[in-house]
Amino acid sequence: MTYLKDLTLVAKEASLKNNPLAKAKAKLLTNLNTQLQAAQAMVNGETFTVPKMKTVEENGQKTRKEVQALVRKWYWRDSEGNVRFAVRVSNKVLEVQKGKTDFVVGDDKELPNLVEQLINAVKAGEFDAQIKSRVEAK
């Protein structure tokens, strides 16, 4: 009796270390999902935090402790009261089109929808050229 014939076998997946574009896209998708959670919390009137490890000193000894930290939001309210959102890659604002970096959302409740659309656009490869130029400029 063979056990291996029922299993699916594939070739080794390429490492992200060798592909900076794929690594940057994966990091961007992770960050956009965090921004989506923060946007949904903002719409619901809640505060969004993530767990982080921090070194604290207690009784003369340093220990690692999990604390709740606020997330740096990629959205803000402009002078006209509209919510704006800017995509960040390598901690720099991504220029989506020549001279244009911000997406404008009229109503707060539309922000999660915008972030979901941006996630789908990254998955579809619509930001590949901009991400590649940002990674190469690093």
In short:
This protein has 138 residues and is an alpha+beta fold. The chain contains three helices and seven strands.
Mean pLDDT metric: 89
Helicity level: 25-40%
Tell me the series of helices and strands, N- to C-terminal: HEEEEEEEHH
Strand coverage percent: 25-35%
Global morphology: extended
Please describe the biggest sheet, giving its number of strands, its sense, and whether it closes into a barrel: 3 strands, antiparallel
Give the tally of β-strands. Answer: 7
Count, helices: 3
Structural class designation: alpha+beta
CA-CA gap between termini = 55 Å
Instruction: Please tell me how large the radius of gyration is.
Output: 20 Å
What's the assembly state of these chains? single chain
Read across the widest sheet, the strand sequence of neighbours is 3-4-7
Q: Please mark out the parts with pLDDT under 50 across 5 or more consecutive residues, or reply none.
A: none
What does the model show?
The protein has 138 residues and is an alpha+beta fold. 35% of the residues lie in helices and 25% in strands. It is built from 3 helices and 7 strands; from the N terminus they run αβββββββαα. The protein has helices at 20-43, 111-124, 128-137; strands at residues 49-58, 61-70, 75-77, 83-86, 88-89, 92-93, 102-105. A 3-stranded antiparallel sheet has the order 3-4-7, with no helix packed on it. A hairpin with a 2-residue loop joins β5 (88-89) and β6. The chain is extended, with a radius of gyration of 20 Å. It starts with 19 loop residues before the first helix and ends with a helix.
